[in-house]
Design a protein that fits this description.
This protein is α+β, with helices and mostly antiparallel strands and about 650 residues long. About 35% of the residues lie in helices and about 30% in strands.
C-alpha cells in the first residue's frame, strides 16, 4: 500500500528585499517572480507559487508573497488559508517595519506553525548574526511563533538549506490535515486566461473537493459554472482535495466576470453577507478605535471597506478585544470561525483582526445585554446550547437546515438528531423550530382566534393570511399551515378554504339574526341575475323587518353567508347568490362546448344580464379560471 503523502500550504512572510524569493528559488529551483516588472525592479509584486517535495515524501505548496508595504493587500490574499509560515529576516538588517506587520498578520490569522529563516548570512559577521538572532527572538515573544526554530541560511552559498528543509519536514508532519468533508470552497487569489483552456482561477481549496465536471457557483455575483479542468501544481488531476493549491478551468465564465476576492464553491451553499458579528482584537502599538470607525476588512482573499460597530464599550484599546458587528460596504463570503484582518482606513496599516461568530446576523443595538449573551453562547457555548440558541433565535419562522449550517460549525449538525429525538427541536414544514417556540406559536393561534370569535361572533373566522400578519410577518406560511392542520385534527379549529375559526364549524345565530339571514338570502335568490346592491337591500329589509338589526350586524350576516358559500362576493358592494352563479357558470361552459370565444354582448344575452352586472361577473370567472380574457373576448379558462 502506497504511503500517504501530506499536502500542506506554506506562505512566506517578511520585509521587502530580505530574500524571500531568492530563498524559495534556492529550495525549489523555481523563480516565483514571473512578471517582467518584478524582474526589472527586483521585488515581488504579485503572488508567486511553486512546490517543494520533501525527502519525507510530503508535498509543500509554497506561496511567495510581496514584502513591500504597498502590497500588503496582496500579501493578505496569499496567506489566507496557509497551514504554516516561513518568516524571512535578513541577517544584515534584522527586524524591519514590514517584518513586524507581517508578524501581526500571522498572529491574527492564527498560523500556529512556522519557522524563521535568517537569510543573507554570507553577508554578515558572527556578531551581526547574533544581534539579528536576538532581534528575532524579541519579535517572537508572546506571538504564536514563540519558540519556533530560527535557521541561518544563505541562498547564495546554500548553507543552511538542508537544515531548513529538515525543519520544514518536521513541521509538515505535525500539521493537522484538512478534511475533504463538507462543501467545496476556494477563495480566488489569481485569475487569468490560458489558450485552449479559457478562464483559470487559482487558490487554496479551503474545504471539500473538486473534480472536472463539477457544478460550482462564483460568489458573490452568483454565476453558475462547470469545472472544465483541475490542476494541482501544474499537473492535471481527477480530484483536488482540501488544503491543496488548485487551479480550476471554468466553463462559460469570462476573465472579466471574476476577480481576486471572489470565491468558487458548491452552488447555493455558501453565504454572501454585508454584515458579520465577530470578536475583534487590536494589535499592541496601534491607536484605540471608536464606534463606527471605517476600516479595510480582509477576509479570505477579499478586501472591502467596513465600519466597526462596537457592541460593548465606548472604544477598543490596543491589545484588547471586544464583540463587534462589522457592517460592510460590499458583500463577501463568510462562515462562522473564519479569521479576518482589519487595516486602518488611511494611512493603511494593520491594526487588528478577529474571528467570525455569526455570518448571517441581524442588525444589533449597542450595549444590549441579550445581544452580548447570545454572541457569547455562539462563540463558546456547548453543542446543544449553540444549536438551541440559533434555532430559538429564528423564532416562529424556524430555520432551514442549510441556513443553520451557515451559522454554526458544521461539526455540530449531527447533534440535531439528538435534539429531534428528545423533542427539544421539531422539524415543521422542512424548518427547525424549538419545541418551546412551536408551543408558543400554537398558543398565539389559539389566543388570536378566540379573541376574533369573541369580538366578531357573526364572522366565520379570519383568513390565514390575516392570522399570519398578527403572529408576525416573518412566520413562514407553510409552518402556520402545519400548526393549523394539527389544531383542526384536534377539533379545536375549523377551516373553510383560507378561513380559520376557533371552535365548532357552525356559527350560532339568534332567532332574529337567522330571520335576517333568511331574508337576505331569499332576496338575492329572487333577484337572480340582477341582484340589488347592499345599501339598497339594507334599506329594503330594514323597512320590512323594522329596526331589528344594526348596519354592522347586516354587513356581518352578508359576510357570513359568503363565507358559508351561500353568496358569492364580486365587489365590496355587489354579491350574487351562489345558485345563480352556478347556473350562469354552467351556461358559460355549455357555450364553450360549441364556440371558442365569448364576447360581452353574447354573455349578457345568454345570462340575462346588464353590463353593470356582466363585467364584474366575467372578471370573477377570470379570477377563478372558468374564463380567460384575451383582448375583448373570453376563452375557455384553465379550470373550465
Amino acid at each position: 500500500m502506497a504511503e500517504h503523502r501530506r499536502h500542506v500550504i506554506l506562505g512566506t512572510a517578511g520585509h521587502i528585499d530580505h530574500g524571500k524569493t531568492e530563498l524559495v528559488r534556492a529550495l525549489t529551483g523555481v523563480d516565483t517572480d514571473r512578471l517582467r516588472e518584478e524582474k526589472e525592479r527586483g521585488i515581488t509584486i504579485e503572488l508567486g507559487f511553486t512546490r517543494l517535495d520533501l525527502p519525507t515524501g510530503d508535498s509543500v505548496g509554497i506561496i511567495d508573497v510581496p514584502g513591500h508595504e504597498k502590497f500588503i493587500k496582496t500579501m493578505l490574499a496569499g496567506v489566507a488559508g496557509i497551514d504554516l509560515v516561513m518568516l524571512v529576516v535578513a541577517a544584515d538588517e534584522g527586524v524591519m517595519p514590514q517584518t513586524c506587520e507581517h508578524m501581526d498578520i500571522i498572529d491574527l490569522l492564527a498560523v500556529d506553525s512556522g519557522v524563521v529563516a535568517l537569510t543573507k548570512t554570507d553577508l554578515v559577521e558572527p556578531e551581526e548574526m547574533e544581534l539579528a538572532h536576538d532581534d528575532v527572538l524579541k519579535l517572537l515573544e508572546g506571538t504564536r511563533l514563540e519558540g519556533a526554530a530560527i535557521v541561518p541560511v544563505s541562498s547564495i552559498t546554500g548553507d543552511g538549506t538542508d537544515k531548513l528543509i529538515e525543519e520544514l519536514g518536521r513541521l509538515v508532519a505535525n500539521v493537522e490535515e484538512r478534511s475533504n468533508a463538507g462543501h467545496a470552497r476556494l477563495p480566488i487569489d489569481r485569475v487569468f486566461t490560458l489558450k485552449g483552456h479559457g478562464t483559470i482561477v487559482t487558490g487554496t481549496l479551503w474545504s471539500g473537493s473538486v473534480s472536472p465536471g463539477d457544478k460550482l457557483e462564483v460568489y458573490p455575483n452568483g454565476l453558475l459554472t462547470r469545472v472544465k479542468s483541475v490542476h494541482v501544481h501544474d499537473k492535471a488531476v481527477e480530484r483536488a482535495e482540501a488544503g491543496q493549491r488548485t487551479a480550476l478551468g471554468l466553463h462559460g465564465v469570462s476573465k472579466d466576470e471574476v476577480t481576486r476576492g471572489d470565491t468558487v464553491g458548491a452552488p447555493g451553499v455558501l453565504h454572501t453577507t454585508h454584515m458579520i458579528d465577530a470578536r475583534l482584537r487590536l494589535v499592541t502599538g496601534t491607536k484605540p478605535i471608536k464606534n463606527r470607525t471605517r476600516v479595510h476588512l480582509n477576509i479570505g482573499t477579499s478586501e472591502v471597506l467596513a465600519r466597526v460597530t462596537l457592541l460593548e464599550g465606548g472604544e477598543l484599546l490596543p491589545g484588547k478585544d471586544a464583540l463587534v458587528q462589522m457592517r460592510l460596504e460590499s458583500p463577501v463570503v463568510a462562515e462562522k470561525d473564519d479569521l479576518f484582518v482589519i487595516r486602518s482606513y488611511s494611512p493603511v496599516h494593520t491594526i487588528g483582526g478577529g474571528r467570525v461568530i455569526d455570518s448571517i446576523p441581524r442588525r444589533h443595538k449597542r450595549m444590549h445585554k441579550e445581544v452580548l449573551d447570545a454572541l457569547s453562547v455562539l462563540e463558546s457555548g456547548g453543542g446543544d446550547e449553540v444549536l438551541l440558541h440559533v434555532i430559538g433565535e429564528s423564532g416562529l419562522e424556524g430555520i432551514p437546515l442549510k441556513k443553520l449550517g451557515q451559522k454554526i460549525d458544521e461539526a455540530l449538525l449531527p447533534d440535531i438528531d439528538g435534539l429531534l429525538a428528545d423533542g427539544r427541536v421539531l422539524k415543521v414544514a422542512g424548518r427547525l423550530v424549538t419545541a418551546d417556540g412551536y408551543s408558543s406559536l400554537r398558543d398565539g393561534i389559539e389566543r388570536l382566534l378566540k379573541a376574533h370569535a369573541a369580538d366578531s361572533p357573526l364572522e366565520w373566522g379570519m383568513s390565514a393570511e390575516e392570522l399570519r400578519g398578527k403572529l408576525g410577518r416573518k412566520l413562514e406560511r407553510s409552518v402556520l399551515d402545519v400548526a393549523l392542520g394539527e389544531l383542526a385534527n384536534s377539533e379545536d379549529v375549523s377551516r373553510r378554504g383560507d378561513l380559520v375559526r376557533w371552535g365548532e364549524e357552525d356559527v350560532a345565530l339568534s332567532p332574529a339574526q337567522q330571520k335576517l339571514a333568511t331574508a337576505i338570502e331569499s332576496r338575492f335568490l329572487k333577484a337572480d341575475a340582477l341582484p340589488p346592491t347592499l345599501d339598497v337591500l339594507h334599506d329594503e329589509i330594514r323597512d320590512e323587518l323594522g329596526a331589528a338589526f344594526t348596519e354592522p350586524e347586516f354587513d356581518a350576516i352578508v359576510k357570513l353567508l359568503a363565507s358559508e358559500g351561500r353568496m358569492v362576493k364580486m365587489t365590496s358592494t355587489l354579491f350574487f347568490h351562489s345558485d345563480v352563479v352556478a347556473r350562469i357558470r354552467g351556461q358559460v361552459l355549455a357555450h364553450f362546448e360549441a364556440e371558442r370565444e365569448l364576447d360581452v354582448p353574447s354573455f349578457k344575452e345568454m345570462a340575462g344580464l346588464t353590463r353593470k352586472y356582466a363585467i364584474p361577473l366575467l372578471e370573477f370567472f377570470d379570477r377563478e379560471g372558468t374564463t380567460l380574457r384575451s383582448g375583448n373576448v373570453r376563452l375557455r379558462g384553465r379550470k373550465a
